[in-house]
């Protein structure tokens, strides 16, 4: 032990941050610097690594980041094991390496601490989008950050800033929907929730905006396939949500796997340095997606080997290679020693990494308190927050006077997702229900109704079970609640070992329609004459045209999380008003794709009467029914003429004209008539969620920023053209004029 007088400056918490970073960086060898820029894992990835293996890599190769929990193949998914091994690995880093630099643990807690069995899972991305509630998104992220930190991790690979442009894509459920505006507001809210007042707070984590710059419109809907979009679409569809995250001070950014305009993002200086750091001014860390470095030579074929890929990612601007492990660190050392990579490039990245570790307080306290972890992770207030988020997400698509159900209704609960905890969570969650305490739809209905509840699964995702038993049970019930949809999956709808479905089976990117087994089950129950409520537990907008035409009620529940079954049941029985609104279009068929509310106008060469509608969905973006009825008064603008950097307020009188409380979402759309370039037929530019008692009236105010109406230019700045704009709320449209001479 050194005496306090011999304590190095970087150990002195009273010293300035810059001095601590500089002092430590000056003491580091090339090998130690390289190690700080590389992470490893414990669990099954390309190979299985034990916690002992990870400890050896930390001790012998100075690796600075670890993923031992918080992802699909992790070594640990139970809280006590997680905490024990986090502390064990931190002890190795602090006591068995020369400089004692603490480890950074990262997790995929994208919708709550869902990769920990005891953790709290919130609705997945589309469900959060359906709340149209930035404050709710922020609360969920705050709870998630607290649970993540108390488990021992410091960086969360969230929020997802991708805009859902391709519903066939297997990661659509991670997004907040198809509106760049809605995605941006919710991504920014998540950053605020994760990072709080700053990562110096012991309950905050590093937020990671992903997947930069454009991931979510892949060719064929195939995960990580090229995204071939114009510069205009890149700037005005994909970048805005990242701009909102950057405005909130997001600490880290993750590139996408795919190529954009021929350049794989992980190896693109154009995107990671020129655009992200240069044009957009980002000064945090750039962290690779898993295996994103190796994909440059294994899949994109733009480098010859791993060494070449390491060099290209470093030239591009990568800071941390998440799980590239020892090979990456050794290549970095070789590249510097052989003069192919300047050591100063490593110094810049290491400086950013060390700065975050100091700000996180890891040099003062890197360990986890097991008792505190048990008290916090999955705590009752966190489960209540999950329930409230799920309640807000419930989106009633159709209701022919069936809902809400009577309190004493006898109910048949059926379908592959009626009592399936893992399916209810969706991807980026534990693939096994052991140790979880998830409330399924069956659980929720049994808890809410005073009547009798029968359960018959009736079908798996793709195969019939005992449909006759379900039909017999339906005949004795007042109503049948049939939960259909999709299972847990990741990326390209796998892996098979976890989903139980083969790549050529549903779900896949070739079909958005329910499999025959599920539809046959619904039809058979419907034919009994017992009213059917269809509940869609799914990650994507599924084509359910038969159900929309035939069953009297249809509820979109998304992947609703830990308490989702309770939220579904409360909604069906009227304890919760369905206040969710679709954040993404539900198409009539695959042939109607792409189906986007914000499509571009275009000519119709042989006449409009000869041209089918460009937007003809089964259920449109923003759709959702309430049990209450709302009427809007006259929509007005506080100022109908504004300057390009001024704001105005949209005023909307709203009255609940029904005899029960309910929730509505006031949605403000704008059409640009001023821009010299083609712009969408309408764009979401504001929204406000409002809950009113029976007979209550309120005036809802939605701020409209003229700067938000413009186009993002090559410098990443919105430029608003002078001229006329239409502002639409409900069925009403009012005019707005932007004048550059206005003062």
UniProtKB/TrEMBL annotation:
Group of enzyme by EC = hydrolase
Catalytic activity, as annotated:
Hydrolysis of terminal, non-reducing beta-D-glucosyl residues with release of beta-D-glucose
Asked if the Swiss-Prot or TrEMBL record annotates the protein with the keyword Isomerase, the reply is no
Q: Name one Pfam family in it.
A: Glyco_hydro_3
Database matches in SUPFAM superfamilies: (Trans)glycosidases, Beta-D-glucan exohydrolase, C-terminal domain
Q: Which GO terms describe its molecular function?
A: hydrolase activity
Task: Tell me the protein family, please.
Answer: Belongs to the glycosyl hydrolase 3 family.
The molecule here is called beta-glucosidase
- What is the native source organism of this protein? Halorubrum ejinorense
């Amino acid at each position: 032990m050194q005496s306090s007088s011999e304590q190095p400056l970087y150990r002195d918490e009273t010293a300035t941050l810059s001095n601590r970073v500089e002092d430590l960086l000056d003491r580091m060898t090339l090998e130690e610097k390289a190690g700080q820029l590389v992470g490893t894992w414990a669990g099954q990835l390309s190979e299985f690594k034990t916690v002992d293996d990870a400890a050896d890599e930390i001790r012998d190769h100075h690796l600075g980041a670890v993923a031992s929990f918080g992802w699909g193949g992790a070594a640990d998914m139970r809280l006590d094991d997680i905490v024990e091994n986090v502390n064990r690995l931190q002890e190795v880093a602090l006591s068995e390496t020369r400089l004692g630099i603490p480890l950074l643990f990262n997790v995929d807690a994208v919708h709550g601490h869902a990769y920990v069995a005891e953790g709290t899972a919130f609705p997945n991305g589309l469900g959060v989008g359906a709340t149209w509630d930035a404050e709710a998104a922020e609360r969920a992220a705050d709870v998630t950050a607290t649970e993540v930190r108390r488990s021992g991790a410091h960086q969360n690979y969230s929020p997802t800033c991708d805009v859902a442009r391709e519903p066939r894509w297997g990661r659509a459920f991670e997004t907040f929907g198809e509106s760049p505006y809605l995605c941006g507001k919710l991504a920014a809210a998540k950053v605020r929730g994760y990072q709080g007042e700053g990562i110096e707070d012991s309950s905050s984590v590093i937020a990671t905006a992903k997947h930069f710059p454009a991931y979510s419109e892949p060719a064929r809907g195939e995960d990580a396939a090229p995204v071939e979009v114009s510069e205009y679409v890149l700037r005005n569809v994909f970048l805005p949500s990242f701009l909102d995250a950057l405005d909130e001070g997001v600490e880290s950014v993750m590139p996408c796997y795919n190529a954009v305009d021929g350049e794989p993002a992980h190896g693109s200086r154009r995107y990671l340095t020129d655009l992200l750091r240069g044009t957009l001014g980002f000064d945090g860390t750039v962290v690779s997606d898993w295996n994103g470095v190796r994909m440059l030579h294994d899949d994109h074929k733009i480098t010859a080997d791993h060494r070449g890929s390491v060099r290209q990612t470093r030239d591009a601007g990568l800071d941390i290679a998440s799980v590239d492990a020892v090979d990456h660190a050794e290549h970095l050392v070789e590249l510097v020693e052989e003069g192919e990579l300047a050591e100063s490039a490593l110094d810049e990245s290491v400086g950013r990494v060390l700065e975050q570790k100091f700000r996180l307080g890891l040099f003062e306290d890197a360990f986890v308190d097991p008792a505190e972890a048990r008290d916090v992770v999955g705590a009752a207030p966190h489960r209540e927050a999950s329930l409230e988020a799920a309640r807000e997400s419930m989106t009633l698509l159709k209701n022919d006077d069936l809902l809400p159900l009577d309190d004493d209704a006898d109910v048949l609960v059926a379908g592959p997702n009626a009592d399936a905890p893992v399916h209810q969570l969706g991807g980026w969650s534990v693939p096994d229900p052991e140790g979880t305490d998830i409330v399924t739809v069956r659980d929720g209905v049994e808890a809410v109704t005073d009547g009798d509840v029968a359960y018959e699964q009736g079908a798996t995702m793709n195969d019939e079970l005992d449909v006759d038993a379900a039909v017999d049970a339906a005949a004795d019930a007042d109503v049948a609640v049939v939960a259909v949809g999709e299972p847990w999956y990741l990326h390209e709808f796998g892996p098979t070992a976890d989903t139980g479905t083969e790549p050529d089976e549903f779900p896949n990117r070739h079909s958005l329609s329910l499999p025959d087994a599920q539809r046959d089950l619904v039809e058979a129950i419907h034919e009994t004459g017992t009213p059917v409520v269809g509940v869609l537990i799914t990650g994507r907008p599924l084509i359910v045209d038969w159900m929309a035409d035939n069953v009297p009620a249809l509820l979109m529940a998304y992947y609703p999380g830990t308490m989702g079954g309770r939220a579904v049941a409360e909604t069906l029985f009227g304890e919760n008003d369905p206040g969710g609104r679709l954040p993404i279009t539900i198409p009539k068929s695959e042939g109607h794709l792409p189906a986007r509310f914000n499509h571009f106008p275009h000519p119709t060469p042989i006449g409009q009467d000869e041209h089918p509608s460009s937007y003809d969905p089964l259920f449109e973006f923003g759709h959702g029914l309430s049990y209450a009825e709302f009427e809007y008064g006259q929509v007005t603008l506080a100022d109908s003429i504004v300057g390009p950097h001024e704001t105005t307020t949209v005023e909307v009188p709203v009255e609940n004209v029904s005899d029960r409380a309910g929730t509505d979402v006031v949605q403000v759309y704008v059409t640009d008539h001023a821009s010299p370039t083609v712009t969408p037929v309408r764009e979401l530019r504001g929204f406000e969620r409002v809950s009113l008692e029976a007979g209550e009236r309120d005036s809802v105010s939605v701020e409209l920023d003229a700067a938000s109406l413009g186009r993002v230019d090559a410098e990443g700045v919105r430029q608003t053209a002078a001229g006329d704009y239409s502002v639409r709320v409900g069925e009403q449209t009012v005019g707005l004029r932007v004048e550059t001479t206005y003062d």
